Amino acid sequence: GLPRKLQGVYWMRNNPGPDTLVSLESGSFDAGSRRIFVKCGGPYNWSFDTNVWGWILYFTLRPLFYLSFEFNEDYTFGDMVFYLFGVVRLACVRHLLGLVMVQADATGDVWERNTYTFTQRWPFGSYSLTKVIDASGQKLPAFQEMLQEVHTQQVIKDIRVVTPTQFVPTALHTFRVASGHQLLQIDV
Q1: In the 8-state DSSP scheme, what is residue 139?
Q2: How far is Cα 78 from Cα 80, in angstroms, rounded to an integer?
Q3: Would the pLDDT of 125 be above 80?
Q4: Among 13-17, 47-51, 169-173, which is the least confidently predicted range?
Q5: In the predicted model, what is the mean pLDDT of the chain?
Q6: Is residue 95's pLDDT more than 80?
Q7: Looking at residue 87, what is its pLDDT?
Q8: Of 70, 94, 98, 164, which sits 20 to 30 A from 82 (CA to CA)?
Q9: Are strands 28-30 and 35-39 parallel, antiparallel or unpaired?
């Protein structure tokens, strides 16, 4: 199965986009190619802000894109490649917008998620992936840091205020909305 260090839930710390959490566990994993194929905005793999920007990102990603995480042999570096409709590899996009994951600690709890434009690192689009829930479902110390950021409505990179309410797609037209400790399921 999926390597343990890639299991769990990651917080997109300092992400200027309207998404906050990601999990790779809902993707299909091929150990031979060391690839995880994830439906962007698919069931239980992403959380989005409940503001207009979160909904725009969700409705842009969900019908069109899959993301392939292609790792090196020891799973310390991953190239992220978009696929249109899950079939057409958008390799040409990598030259305009390259996305990579680089392990930043010994355990795989922290990754630098770097964005490159025309082969130059783009600090604004880069952020850290920090594990907040481990493979066993236990909250890690960074979980409280994430809650603090959400509840204090911190401004990220002078553009984004993380919304205290997030939605997580669970099925094609079902969402779970979490605000604080309350959970609400919405069927549309």
Answers
A1: B
A2: 6
A3: yes
A4: 169-173
A5: 87
A6: no
A7: 86
A8: 164
A9: antiparallel
Q: Residue 108 corresponds to which tokens in the numbers above?
A: 């795989």
CA triple 174-179-180, angle to 5 deg: 140
pLDDT-derived band of residue 160, with 50, 70 and 90 as boundaries? confident
Dist CA 51 CA 188 (whole Å): 17
According to the model, what pLDDT value does residue 170 have? 80
Q: If we measure between CA atoms, which residue out of 137, 140, 134 comes closest to residue 5?
A: 134
Complete DSSP assignment for 142-181: HHHHHHHHHHTT-EETTTEE--SEEEEEEETTEEEEEETT
Average pLDDT of span 32-52: 92
* The token pair that represents 6 in the structure block: 């890639």
Instruction: Let me know if 21 is exposed, middle or buried by CB neighbors in 10 A (0-12, 13-18, 19+).
Output: buried
Q: What is the pLDDT of residue 65?
A: 92
Give the angle subtended at the CA of 184 by the CAs of 170 and 131, to the nearest 5°: 60
- Looking at residue 60, its amino acid is T
To which residue do tokens 């409940």 refer?
50
Phi, psi of 64 (to 5 degrees): -110, -40
Tell me which residue of 110, 109, 139 sits closest to 127, measured CA to CA: 110
| Spatial distance between the Cα atoms of 172 and 178, rounded to a whole number of angstroms | 18
Question: Under a CB-based contact definition with an 8 Å cutoff, are residues 66 and 40 in contact?
Answer: yes
